[in-house]
Amino acid sequence: MMTNADSRVSEGVGGVPFAMRDPLHVPRERYYDRGFFELEKQKLWPRAWQMACRLEEIPGPGDFVEYEICDQSILIVRQDDLSIKAFHNACRHRGVQLGKGTGRMPKGQIVCPFHGWRWNIDGSSSFVYGKEGFEPECVRPEELRLPEVKVDIWGACVWINMDPEARPLAEALAPAAQLLDAIGFANMRVWWWKEIILRSNWKIAQEAFHEGWHVMRTHPQLTMGMGEDYPVDNVEYTTFENGHARFQGRFDPTAGGVAEGRGADQFIERSTTLWEGQDAMTLKRDIDVFMGMRNRVPPGEDFPTAAIAALFEYWQGAGIPVPPKNEGVRLWGGEVFLFPNFFVLPMYGNALCYRIRPHDDDPECCRFEIFSLTTYPEGHEPGRAHLMGRFEPDDAENLGLIPRQDVRNIERQQRGLHSLGFTELRLATEWESPISNMHIELDRYLAR
Ligand code: FES
Ligand SMILES: [Fe+2]
User: Fold this and answer.
1) How many whole angstroms from 221 Cα to the centroid of ligand 2?
2) Per-residue pLDDT at 234
3) How distant, in Å, are the alpha carbons of 15, 181, 265, 350 from that of 187?
């Protein structure tokens, strides 16, 4: 069987070490080889559009976030007119980083901590301490302006690209981003946001989420006791241009036909397992609506359809801007992956998002961030979003059962890759096509 990735596999990968030779195998070195990692640092990260922060991290003028990717640091700064600019984070004098972490620029000024040179938040030079000690050509205001990084907004997130020649964001995210537009992704805000440092390559970590069929063994509680009878082909996978992909259920979840049964008890139990297991995708608010329907649907009738119709009614009544039912509801419980390292698992008016990037200049270490989003009633959106903290992968107090189950495999997989008895990953033709599609796009960046 041909996948739609086949036709794109071999073009332009000359000179890339451990390149993909077909869409069915991934050389293991791509996940730990230093040379491969350096090539990503040189050719992928400085050229790819990346999710740098959520808009609600920088609600007001002067608010900033430092976005770090490998050895690069970018300052994202909210402007007086609420537009956003991004700058390379290095003083024009002797290179000191101008901002660290997140916060608000004091008195609307970016101030270097070394000798006190200052900039307005639009990047123009506003003060040069000791100017008289310099030749005039060393301190010309236009020379001192902070170099800008391309910036754009999509999905209530700020995206950056260090390549001045980069194509527009909308083009780069097409056609996958539009799928999320249809379900009101841009209306969602952070419910919680946590980080884990994982002992794995950034790609291994994200590939744990690019298919749904690991649920049977990794998350047995979600199969409702079906065990190995849990259907492996109840999900369809689509790969797109630009390295993006999607998977979703074969059926419309609002109109019957899911695998796990249509009774009230089963549906509520499964929803509750999802809520308790991760506090994302399904939230307490949704469970309350479902419970309210429990005795209003006659036994033997299709409960999920009625319960989800009640959710749409609830959103409308509460002024929660979830778009009316459309084709996008099939994404619920599925995933949209945006190359290179951001993906969204939507459900109801919620979504679980992940952003994964290299950490500590180590090919086998990554920063693994989880954002649980929900849609708030209009006018009642929460204030500034904050990272709740960095947690250990097995921290049962701060991480739900479902993410802990996923993460356990990730670190074991990274170690397994080094086995003398292992040479390459073998991939399922359709069910793992998002993984090969991602690697093929990566090779295209590395070969350029
Ligand atoms: S290094 Fe920034 S003012 Fe000297
Ligand atoms: Fe999982």
Assistant:
1) 11
2) 87
3) 43, 9, 31, 10
